Amino acid sequence: MIIAIDGHSSCGKSTIAKSLAKRLGFTYVDTGAMYRAVTLFCQQNNLIQNGVVDEENLAKRIGEVSISFALNNSTQLQDTYLNGINVEKQIRSMEVAHDVSTVSKIAFVRKAMVEKQQEYGKNANVVMDGRDIGTVVFPNADYKFFVTASPEIRAKRRYDELMEKEGKANFDEILENLKQRDLIDSTRKESPLRQADDAILVDTSNMTREGQLEWILSKIQL
Length: 222
Ligand code: DC
What we know:
Elements: E1 2-7, H1 13-24, E2 27-30, H2 31-44, E3 48-49, E4 52-53, H3 55-61, E5 67-72, E6 77-82, E7 85-86, H4 88-91, H5 94-103, H6 107-122, E8 126-130, H7 133-137, E9 143-148, H8 151-166, H9 171-187, E10 200-203, H10 209-219
Helix pairs in contact: 1-10, 2-5, 2-6, 8-9
The structure holds 2'-deoxycytidine-5'-monophosphate.
């Protein structure tokens, strides 16, 4: 069984997808982590400078990018590996976040990632989260959910998270960045973010985390 979870940045998709996979005993695949790992590969190999990707050389070397996931025993979550090295922490950095929209716009990068994602779905029950899972990667997924929340609520959640982790955050900056990422993700030429016609909309603006999970579980018949 394939469960596709797409949606806007910072709307809580991955939290939902992880807890859903855990409850159902399915494999969780974080496709955003894959685009982040390719971005890190570009940065490590000087294939991106000042936001401009050296597409010719990246195209030659994309075959060298090997991405895998393995369980981290202390967090009980999957860590991302790039060519055998654990890059989970690095791919969540602001530096990677800054370039990932640019790298994930490139058609041949998307093609390589989509093939890999489709492989994951061949032999296992998966919950996969991303932007194009229900529209491009698995148009015939058993269940498709499209998660969203108002930009202000998403920014507030991110603000609270940063305040807790780092003790400082700027609400207006976060809100602006979210709106900018929404715009890039939904207007790009390759696989723009959009709700699949048959996806179930989950607006988490007024739902707790537990409420979101229970609501989604109530829609799934195993
Ligand atoms: O979900 P995330 O924030 O970790 O995703 C990082 C970036 O990757 C985001 O800018 C959009 C892109 N992405 C994508 O284009 N397609 C996907 N299936 C998943 C993520």
